[in-house]
Design brief:
Helix content of chain A: 25-40%
Radius of gyration of chain A: 24 Å
Shape of chain A: elongated
Strand content of chain A: 5-15%
Number of helices of chain A: 13
Structural class of chain A: alpha/beta
Strand order of the largest sheet of chain B: 8-7-6-9-10-11-12
Order of helices and strands of chain A: EHEHEHEHEHHHEHEEHEHEHEHEH
Mean pLDDT of chain A: 93
Mean pLDDT of chain B: 96
Helix content of chain B: 25-40%
Largest sheet of chain B: 7 strands, parallel
Order of helices and strands of chain B: EHEHEHEHEHHEHEEHEHEHEEH
Low-confidence stretches of chain B: none
Pfam families (chain B): 2-Hacid_dh, 2-Hacid_dh_C
Family (chain B): Belongs to the D-isomer specific 2-hydroxyacid dehydrogenase family.
Number of helices of chain B: 11
Radius of gyration of chain B: 21 Å
Strand order of the largest sheet of chain A: 8-7-6-9-10-11-12
Protein name (chain B): Hydroxyphenylpyruvate reductase
Oligomer: heterodimer
Number of strands of chain B: 12
Structural class of chain B: alpha/beta
Keywords (chain B): NAD, Oxidoreductase
Distance between the termini of chain A: 65 Å
InterPro entries (chain B): D-isomer_2-hydroxyacid_DH, D-isomer_2_OHA_DH_cat_dom, D-isomer_DH_CS1, D-isomer_DH_NAD-bd, NAD(P)-bd_dom_sf
Low-confidence stretches of chain A: 6-13
């Protein structure tokens, strides 16, 4: 065998694969870690270190350009300060309320989220919760499982879905997926958003209170921001009325939870379907005693299909970043 | 019309009962201690029977009431009425189609979402106080799942329309192919079951459709498949379904009806992949009122010699 000329041998210096910092593993990573194996990056797992986070970052994360975060590991100005090379924040969620967007904008740090891939599942959960509350599905299932049907006879009647005027709070990708589904049931769809959507064939309301006055049910699908915190307050709920139903698949803090509990307990609204709460996993005890609420442990988007699509999107964004290619799902200022 | 005797088979709706009481001489069959004596005593005054999904007018009842002219059912299903006997004796039969179509279809979709997305199980989980941060139980995506419908009548079509909004491909089995629809037809229920993720029973109960969902169909539906029954309990071979669920040979079930209501197989009570409802398909305030008005309207029309609103026979 002839010896090969030296320039044809694989003698390139090994380039260090860049790190992606992960402070706490998002559910996506915990469940599907093998999907995060890439030739373009490697994970820097802060939670596996015995060092406290602050120290870990100052010791190991000085040259980190990208971070994968989630609700459990918020990107605050303090954290950003400890990451002087940071250029990209990738979140494995649709929600972005755990990221200081102003600070990122100020420093030219790009942000990507996983909005589109979770929309169907979130919308399905929202519609499922609405039907459950109106038709008393979980409540009647309890009734049957406790053997009450033979003794008690007919179950109390529910309320028809098709007649209802449903107000969607936030007509983004989740809100519009909800609207499309509800139309098929014959519901009248109304909405409130920061600005009217030119493509939307539904009546627009410039504020949530007016939307509530005209609606039989509200479905909360917007993001949590300083403006939307406690946007669904007592006034809005009273406007919704005694037969009114609230469904929340967005963030607990958009609703004034204490007031909502009072309204439910005193019959000032008719019922609620809730996937999110202000202080998860804490759920107000009074809700556990009500028959006209349906409760879910923040899993509106927890399907294998949705998660795998989110994994693909997160990895694709990271790989694009490290290849200097356009990001797939960057946040655009609206 | 107050002297016309109307026999109400069982309690079904307070408003209907009240109105029947006002307009006719109402006999509440469930309150009668000696049913056969009662029938002999009143057989010449009873000209109408009001039945529902649980209790109607079988051959024995019809024979016992020689003056019976009309059976008005507070349901769309007619399986509790001996239609052949009615036809033979010239007895009119009415039901309550259309007014309950949407509610039943809504419930079918509600059951699909509740089973696939484990809504009832999630609710139980939160109420038990067991929720801890970091409990990542996954459910199953509903959007895009293949929905197979047995019976593409009014209710079947309404279910299809709703499922389409969730991007579910629709297929069906019917006695005859409905060429006017774009949905995929399967000539047998087994083939339909083998080619869908969610199988819904939406046909009427007749001799032919009894146990239309049998062991073969359940096997074809498979370990990931979900069965939804908003038809009648006897559409499904219940013991076969129960063992398939307990043995996890089928993915799950949403059941509004059972073979021997109100009895529900207790083996199902401990399963997290089933949703069990006490026959509430048309159970909304709005729809039950509309159904009651239809029963009353049909009876009035009959006794005033006007055309019936929703005749079957």
């Amino acid at each position: 065998m002839e010896s090969q000329p030296s320039q044809e041998r694989n003698e390139q210096p090994t380039k260090e694969v860049p790190h992606v910092l992960v402070m706490k593993p998002p559910p996506l990573l915990t469940l599907f870690e093998d999907k995060f194996i890439s030739t373009k990056f490697q994970l820097l797992k802060a939670w596996e270190s015995t060092l406290p986070l602050h120290q870990f970052l100052t010791t190991h994360a000085g040259s980190v350009r990208a971070v994968l975060c989630s609700g459990a590991s918020p990107i605050t100005p303090h954290i950003i300060q400890l990451l002087p090379s940071l250029q990209l924040v990738v979140t494995a969620s649709a929600g972005i309320n755990h990221i200081d967007l102003n600070e990122c904008r100020r420093l030219g740090i790009a942000v990507t989220n996983a909005a589109g891939v979770f929309s169907d599942d979130a919308a399905d959960a929202a519609v499922g919760l609405l039907i459950d509350v109106l038709r008393k599905i979980s409540s009647a299932d309890r009734f049957v499982r406790h053997g009450l049907w033979p003794a008690t006879g007919d179950y109390p009647l529910g309320s028809k879905l098709g007649d209802k005027r449903v107000g969607i709070v936030g007509l983004g990708s989740i809100g519009s997926a909800v609207a499309k589904r509800l139309e098929a049931f014959g519901c009248t769809v109304l909405y409130n958003s920061r600005k009217p959507k030119p493509w939307a064939p539904y009546p627009f309301y410039s504020n949530v209170h007016e939307l509530a006055v005209d609606s039989d049910a509200l479905i909360v699908c917007c993001g949590l921001t300083a403006e939307t915190r406690h946007m669904i307050n007592r006034q809005v709920m009273v406007a919704l009325g005694k037969q009114g139903i609230i469904v929340n698949v967005a963030r607990g803090a958009i609703i004034d939870e204490k007031e909502m509990v009072e309204c439910l307990v005193h019959g000032e609204i008719g019922g609620a379907g809730l996937d999110v709460f202000e202080n998860e996993p804490s759920v107000p005890k009074q809700l556990l005693e009500l028959d006209n609420v349906v409760l879910s442990p923040h899993r509106a988007v927890f399907t294998p299909e949705g998660f795998m699509a989110a994994c693909d999107l997160v990895v694709a964004n990271l790989e694009a970043f490290f290849e200097d290619e356009p990001l797939l799902s960057p946040l655009i200022d609206e | 019309m107050e002297s016309i005797g109307v026999l109400m088979a069982c309690p079904m709706n307070p408003y209907l009962e009240q109105e029947l009481d006002k307009r006719f001489t109402l006999h509440r069959f469930w309150k009668v201690p000696e049913k056969s004596t009662f029938l002999t005593t009143h057989c010449n005054s009873i000209r109408a029977v009001v039945g529902n999904a649980s209790s109607g007018a079988d051959a024995q009842m019809i024979e016992a009431l020689p003056k019976l002219e009309i059976v008005a059912s507070f349901s769309v299903g007619l399986d509790k009425i001996d239609l052949a006997k009615c036809k033979e004796k010239g007895i009119r039969v009415t039901n309550t189609p259309d007014v309950l179509t949407e509610d039943v279809a809504d419930l079918a979709i509600g059951l699909m979402l509740a089973v696939l997305r484990k809504l009832c199980e999630s609710d139980r989980y939160v109420r038990s106080g067991k929720w801890k941060k970091g409990s990542y139980m996954l459910t199953t995506k509903f959007t895009g799942k293949r929905v197979g419908i047995i019976g593409l009548g009014r209710i079947g079509m309404a279910i299809a329309k709703r499922a389409e909004a969730f991007s579910c491909p629709i297929s069906y089995h019917s006695r005859t192919e409905k060429t006017e629809t774009k949905y995929k037809y399967y000539p047998s229920v087994v083939e339909l079951a083998a080619n869908c993720d969610i199988l819904v029973v939406a046909c009427s109960l007749t001799e032919e459709t009894r146990h239309i969902v049998n062991r073969k169909v359940i096997d074809a539906l498979g370990a990931k498949g979900v069965l939804i029954n908003i038809g009648r309990g006897p559409h499904v071979d219940e013991p076969e379904l129960v063992s398939a669920l307990v043995e996890r040979r089928i993915g799950g079930a949403g059941l509004d009806v059972f073979e021997h209501e109100p009895e529900v197989p207790e083996e199902l009570f401990g399963l997290d992949n089933v949703v069990l409802l006490p026959h509430v398909g048309s159970g909304t305030v709005e729809t039950r009122k509309a159904m009651a008005d239809l029963v009353l309207g049909n009876l009035e029309a009959h006794f005033m010699n006007k055309p019936l609103l929703t005749p079957v026979v």
